[in-house]
Amino acid sequence: METNSTDWRYTVMPAVFTWLKESESGALEIDFDVTKKQAAAVLRTQGKGGSRMGGLVASGTLGENSYLSTEQRLSLIKSLSEVAKEYNVPLISGAAAETKEELAKIIGGLATVGVDTVMVMPPKTEVVPSDEEMYAYYELAAIAAKEVGVTIMPYNNPDAAGYHAISTDILRRLAALPEVTALKISTTDVSTIETLMLENRGLKILAGVDTVTVHAGLAGACGGITGVGTIFPKASVTMQEHVLKGEWAEANKISQAMNSISYLDAQPLLMEYLKFAMGIHHNDADGGLRTLGKKLTQQQIDDVRARYALAKERLETLDLLD
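Now predict its structure.
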């Protein structure tokens, strides 16, 4: 794979968790200090080849995004922008809306708190948009991004409930827009990536599902956004180093070592599962269970503990624990 070591799109980027704490009233609120500390620790970590993660994803699916108010979300992103600036990496966050006009407003707001690239999800409508409606939605997003000086990353997540799929034809057309810096494709079916890359080797595609990071790289993805890598950053970065060198056997060893926990990234409760695993990793299991999302059952808690322990044991044998 032709690479550019100065291009953040050829790296993996952590989708960081939003840590919460109890206020004096007992309500949950954002713990900005711990959230920033965790993000900085991930960005500091090097792979065996000496590289680091090249971007920071704030307030995404793993960051309690669905449960935060607009004010909370913007405050969180602004706080994490300080970390991104310290480590000289782009700050990435997401946007989803029902209408083109609402989307343009969200993109403008994200630009004011330091976001460099906006991951744009398909419109949140009950009726599936036509290809032309989908293209118009993203075209306006590109115009809005240009006006405020940011770029966009169309986000195709066809495996997730509630998201409309973006057709391969529309992805191809969107990639040609100058404001589109990359495509994010979150699906276990990496044939979409392969099809697009066969038609245009110059495309920049980021994988979004941890279970198929290596397979996505083999199909042509240049980088990825990771949840599991936020827990095990040394392993995630080292795996990407092997992918970029075409060292598929070595990359696959690491993928297999993380398999037990990467599985959770493709589940409906991925945020709750992986956040708890992060809490275990940092000896703060209670913090890992502190979420605005779903409360895990004891059976789910035990399953995450077992999956985390197995991944940790396997990574330890590869000298890939942080």
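DSSP finds 14 helices and ten strands in the chain.
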